[in-house]
Amino acid sequence: MELDRAVPVWPQVAADLRRRLDAGEWEPGERFPGTVTLAAEYGVTQSTVQKAVVALREEGRLRTVLGAGSYVLR
């Protein structure tokens, strides 16, 4: 995915992760990739990915367990 650096990046990352979730790349209950992995994949900082993950969590798409990572809900 090519990011448009002229606008905030985290919403673009969140939209792509949403698309990937909808496509079934990760099944409900499956552990979601960590911020280090996703940051490297997208070529962005971990804080950018964290903002995207928070948005998905607030939408009810992910559940985060402190010290254990995030898991797909739907």
Automatic annotation (TrEMBL):
CDD domains: WHTH_GntR. Pfam families: GntR (PF00392). The keyword Disulfide bond does not apply. InterPro entries: Bact_HTH_transcr_reg, Tscrpt_reg_HTH_GntR, WH-like_DNA-bd_sf, WH_DNA-bd_sf. Residues 7-74 form the HTH gntR-type domain. Signal peptide: none annotated. Keywords: DNA-binding, Transcription, Transcription regulation. This is GntR family transcriptional regulator. The lineage of its organism: Bacteria, Bacillati, Actinomycetota, Actinomycetes, Kitasatosporales.
